[in-house]
Structures are given as structure tokens and as C-alpha cells.
Specification:
- By secondary structure, the chain is of the alpha+beta class.
- The protein has a single domain, classed as Glutamine Phosphoribosylpyrophosphate, subunit 1, domain 1 (4-Layer Sandwich).
- It contains 8 helices and 13 strands.
- It has helices at residues 13-24, 29-41, 87-94, 105-114, 125-138, 203-209, 211-220, 225-242; strands spanning 4-8, 63-69, 75-81, 102-104, 151-157, 160-167, 188-191, 195-201, 250-256, 261-265, 273-278, 284-289, 294-297.
- Helix 1 (13-24) packs antiparallel against helix 2, helix 2 runs antiparallel to helix 3 and helix 7 crosses helix 8.
């Protein structure tokens, strides 16, 4: 089975390039996930992840991250932590535990310190300025700022599949709010015998459908990665609509153990981008056209 990487959003491009080089030089799937996610976390230009992440209503950057190893079934995550320079590193370390693998707030921060992980002030001058501007705007337009994007990376190295996610969550979120990203089955799910899926978008809507697990379940039934993403998302949208509940923006990316890859979104054509690479496709940004229907190279 050839190596492959898929990652949500064009902000992942440089990280995917670096991860591809790591794999070519003998690196393993967990290392490649870490490398790709770290490069997004460290870049203050990406204001929805890591350093420079947009803060909550109190001006604090709260971080969520998770990692799942599809070969062992082990999973780790952090929720609502502050100051951890690379949240995915903490999630990967936690994934080696059988118990106490999902830690929140001060507990996650204490674990990271014990493990010797780096800490820093994650609020940059630019993200603080955006927060101050949002406070003023919300006086007249409540809910005007709800930006979000999650870096989602799935790597297949031979028969080993692993997935990792990292985010600072919704801009101007309520303190302590947790989205889908660190929740296994919602933000990500990986099984090396089947495939892996990760999600980005409105976390509450993703959690309501356990979308990553649902798409992996469909792959287990024989669907390709693309068919599984499309079917899971479309069914969730229809099911919630029947209850009078409108799903906002949600997107999925997937790699199958069978070599397939896929993505789906309910955003408008061209709005959702992802990065894909394998041994015959160099790292490149792709877009989806036709809603949840088709993928087109960009």
C-alpha cells in the first residue's frame, strides 16, 4: 500500500510537504502527523490554530487537540488547555495511555509540563487586536465573529493509518466551550484496517452526527472514502433537517485502507480546500465542487 496524506484546508500545504519528506526518509505515520500539524500550530498567520489562535470571549486562547492511532486503537486528547505551544504533541503523548488519555484545562497543562513540552503566550498582538475589535462590534451585532478552522491531518504509511487534529476553536466562544475536534468519533476516527476520517466546521453540528465514526463505519461496509464522506454528511444534514435543525458548515476528509481518499462539504463550491499527496501525486491543494458530490483538482 502506498503512502498518502490528506489534510483539511490549504493552510496545511507546507506541513504536508514536510510530512511527505519525512515519510520518504523512513519516518512513521505518527511522526508525519506531528510534523504536519506542528507547522500549522507554529504559524501565527493561521489564526484558528495554535500560536496566534483567536481567543474566547475573555481574550484567552483555549486549545483543543487529539490524536488517534488506527493500528492500536489508542487515542489521546486535550480540551480547553492554555499555553501549550504544540497541543498535538500533548495529544500524541496521551495516546500512549490506556486510562487518563483525555485531559482538560489545568490537568492537560500539568501533564504537558511534566512531559517537558514547551509553553508560551499563544495570544499574538494581531489576534488580541482582532479580539478587541470583535468586542466593539458585538455591542451592535451579537455573534458577528464566529470564525473557526481546524487543522486535520490523516497519514497512511503502508498499512498504518493515524490521524491528528488541532484548533483554538470558535472565535469569541464561551470560556470552556469544546467543539468536535478532541472528541473521538466526532472530530476524528482511525482504524488501519478500514480507514480514517476527520472533520472541520461547526463542532456542535459535527458532534450531533458523530460524523467521523459514521464515515469510517460506511467504509467498513465497502464504501470508498469519497462515498463514505458524501453519504455520511448528506444523511446527517437530511436527518437534522427533518427535525427542524439546520446544519451549518461542515467538511470531512478521509483516507481508506483500500487506497481511496475523499472529502465532502456543505459549503459552496470552492470554499472548502484540502491538501492531498501520495507517491504519484505531489502535495497540492484541491477543492470540492458540487457540494458533497465531487472533488476537482485545483
Amino acid at each position: 500500500m502506498s503512502n498518502a496524506i490528506i489534510a483539511a484546508w490549504n493552510m496545511s500545504l507546507e506541513g504536508v510537504k514536510a510530512a511527505c519528506e519525512l515519510l520518504k526518509n523512513g519516518g512513521e505515520a505518527p511522526e508525519a502527523v506531528k510534523k504536519a500539524v506542528n507547522l500549522v500550530e507554529d504559524n501565527p498567520g493561521f489564526s484558528s490554530v495554535g500560536y496566534g489562535g483567536l481567543p474566547n470571549r475573555l481574550g484567552e486562547v483555549e486549545l483543543d487537540a487529539a490524536y488517534m492511532d488506527g493500528s492500536t486503537g489508542y487515542y489521546g486528547g486535550i480540551l480547553g488547555a492554555k499555553g501549550i505551544a504544540n497541543p498535538i504533541d500533548a495529544a500524541i503523548k496521551l495516546s500512549k495511555r490506556h486510562l487518563n488519555c483525555l485531559l482538560s484545562g489545568a490537568g492537560a497543562e500539568q501533564f504537558a509540563r511534566i512531559e517537558g513540552l514547551a509553553f508560551k503566550n499563544m495570544l499574538t498582538a494581531e489576534s488580541k487586536k482582532k479580539w478587541e475589535e470583535a468586542l466593539e462590534k458585538e455591542k451592535t451585532s451579537p455573534g458577528a465573529y464566529r470564525g473557526h478552522d481546524t487543522v486535520c491531518v490523516i497519514v497512511r504509511k503502508d498499512k498504518h493509518i493515524a490521524a491528528g487534529v488541532s484548533t483554538s476553536g470558535l472565535f469569541m466562544k464561551e470560556p470552556g466551550r469544546i467543539g468536535d475536534s478532541p472528541i473521538v468519533g466526532a472530530g476524528l476516527y482511525a482504524d488501519s484496517a478500514i480507514g480514517a476520517v476527520s472533520a472541520t466546521g461547526h463542532g456542535e453540528d459535527i458532534i450531533r452526527g458523530c460524523l467521523s465514526y459514521e464515515a469510517v463505519r460506511l467504509m467498513e461496509q465497502g464504501r470508498s472514502a469519497q462515498e463514505a464522506c458524501k453519504t455520511a454528511l448528506a444523511a446527517h444534514i437530511a436527518r437534522m433537517k427533518s427535525k427542524g435543525f439546520a446544519i451549518k458548515d461542515v467538511s470531512l476528509v478521509a483516507l481508506g485502507a483500500d487506497g481511496s481518499f475523499g472529502a465532502a462539504t456543505n459549503l459552496k463550491d470552492g470554499e472548502f480546500t484540502f491538501v492531498y499527496a501520495d507517491e504519484t501525486h505531489p502535495p497540492a491543494v484541491w477543492t470540492i465542487s458540487g457540494g458533497v458530490q465531487h472533488i476537482a483538482a485545483r
